[in-house]
Write a structure and sequence with these properties.
The chain is α/β, with parallel strands linked by helices. The chain has helices at residues 9-30, 37-50, 61-71, 89-96, 118-121, 141-150, 208-218, 239-249, 252-270, 301-310, 340-348, 360-371, and strands spanning 54-58, 79-82, 100-103, 126-129, 154-158, 166-168, 174-176, 183-187, 201-205, 222-224, 227-228, 276-277, 292-296, 349-352. Helix 3 (61-71) runs parallel beside helix 4 (89-96). The protein binds pyridoxal-5'-phosphate (PLP). The site of pyridoxal-5'-phosphate has 15 residues, from helix 3 and helix 4.
Length: 375
Amino acid sequence: MEPIRMVDLRSQYLRIKPEVDAAIQCVLDSTAFIQGEAVSDFEQHLSQYVDSKYVVSCGNGTDALTAALLALGIGPGDEVVTVPFTFIATVEAIAQVGAKPVLVDVREDSYMMDSDKLEAAITPKTKAVIPVHLYGQCADMEAILDIAKKHNISVVEDACQAISAAYTFSDGRVKQAGTMGDIGCLSFFPSKNLGCYGDGGALMTQDEELSVRLRMICRHGSKERYRHEIVGINSRLDTLQAAILNVKLNHLDAFITARKQAADYYHSALSGMEWIVVPQASPNSTHTYHQFTVAVQNGRRDALRQHLASHNIPTMIYYPVPAHLQPAYASLNYRKGDFPVAERLCSEVLSLPMHTELTEEQLEYICQTIKNFPL
Ligand SMILES: *Cc1c(COP(=O)(O)O)cnc(C)c1O
């Protein structure tokens, strides 16, 4: 059996090597490393794939979140609501633009924003809400969009983990993660479902004016070279990364199918276990399995993790500490106990190996090793 990896980028690369190498060589031959042709090609390609009117590429997912808030004019004195159970970048972007992160707890079943708790967090200072589409499925968007509309606040979707996840509204409309709110943010960090070979990100919007603003912000506040209309940042997708992403986007559906097959295996093998909670389907959303994250409910998550490690099975904890208990955000004055669901999840979640190259033999070995864990 091949060694089990948490993420296996190498085997995936070897499968698509001729295409990727040719795309890279093409950029090397052109030497158009910044804003070369592959960048606009990829933006068009992605906009078709996710069915978003406008796509603006940028340097990474964190910059996408920051640029989104800047484009909406959010800054000091404003509040932005998000969740404590996320990668820190979501909260960090709010703080970086000078606004105050306001947190609401996540749901017991989906681990994503509890829309029933959103309204209570909204004040006259609230300018936006950032739902996080965690682990590969969409948050409770219909309720979140309704509440945002009622209070006239913007919705920025953190879709960094959920490219291609589809959400069905009660009227039957189907939309992809990141295309439902005012602005959606994607990350192409190598381990994401659509990952490049370095850093990369993109913004999606259906609003032309916002798309123009987003592009200006990511290009030093300018539309025209050396004429800077607003204060911007420098955040661009490298041409090399865009060329790689152009190749990989053609394979994304197959990548997601491979992830779903691995997830199906985990589900059927682990579903009957008393002390393991397998991922629950978020209402109205498909799951693209960026992570396959179980909750270990017998208080022995860390012991199980060690047991697996001793059998050469890597696992990860996304996330071990909620945002409100991170030292960097102590000034928000949250306390232990403020977000009990997020806090409990931090001590229970365990992400199992999940990538496009897992074999049945590996999956069987992982599940059997979990079942053999002495209680
Ligand atoms: C990966 C990720 C980000 C940040 O993306 P980078 O490209 O690493 O900057 C933001 N939010 C979430 C939920 C993520 O998973």
